Amino acid sequence: ARRAAGPGQVHRYDDAVRQQRDRREALRADLAGALDRGELRLVFQPVVDLVLQRTVTVEALLRWRHPVYGEVSPAEFVPLAEESALITELGRWVLHEACTTVAALPGTELAVAVNVSARQLHGGSLGADVLAALDASGLPSRRLFLELTESMLLDDDAVIEELEALRQLGIRIAVDDFGTGWSSLAYLVGLPVDTLKMDRQFLAGVEHDQQRQALCRAVLHLGASLGLPVVVEGVEGDAEASLLRDMGHRYLQGFALSRPMEAAQLAAGGWPTGLPTAAVAPSPR
Ligand code: C2E
Ligand code: MG
Ligand code: MG
Ligand code: MG
């Protein structure tokens, strides 16, 4: 709807809407060739185990450097890829690239987590694509996690069977953005799932607010009562990181520990082993 404003402002509003639409259409058109033009790459964000004091997994995150728009977020272009069969092709490339990169790291048991989109999961070739990526890279299946969101696990026997088959081979399944689909909590029991990743939104304001802290604790306890490890994602500040450590929480991922790293940086072995010094130090009174 248009804002009630002077004619000049209406113009600016229309311009903004048009610009947004033009950008989306340009991105949609360009995405198809982005892979062949070498504009896509993966970055890798560490998941740190505070008990073992080391990075145990890295999450592969897709990046697109567009010749005109610069770095475009996957939050913007993955949904465009999902509109067509393109997501299957991208997903296959991501699996292959992620497994190859991590398999090539010398002397490590690091696992890699790959995000899977709904259309890819329902497309029917996920199992074959996963096996092809493991085969080509030589990565042992136990070092691969697939990240799926809650809604993707609902009411689909074919999907559950395919995931069950992948788990039989040693591949692990993580529920991404966990807690954002509370309406369907009962779905978790008995599902083929190995890990939960608590959504970033549960951390918002957690250092200052008792109620938010209680909610965060409840989500973590839920995972524990289901016998599933929980990764807290989006740990942005040192205060949040220390709070989670004080709560006895084990697996953290976020800017406070490490930003996503380029493949070369990962190969150089610069991943974190624990909390940053600022978060480890006792908080000032
Ligand atoms: P996600 O799987 O939940 O990934 C976590 C997102 O949170 C990443 O955003 C990561 O960069 C960001 N993040 C990590 N730590 C922090 C923090 O401390 N603070 C803040 N503010 N953000 C943090 P990114 O890389 O932009 O990816 C966005 C989403 O795009 C992902 O959310 C995932 O759903 C999707 N995505 C990324 N790569 C792929 C892919 O290869 N395939 C598919 N299907 N989806 C992907
Ligand atoms: Mg993810
Ligand atoms: Mg996530
Ligand atoms: Mg998330």
TrEMBL record:
Alphabetical UniProt keywords: Membrane, Transmembrane, Transmembrane helix
Domain EAL per the UniProt entry, residue ranges: 24-274
Name listed for the protein in its UniProt record: PAS domain S-box-containing protein
Protein's organism: Geodermatophilus sabuli
Whole-protein coverage range: 583 to 867 of 867
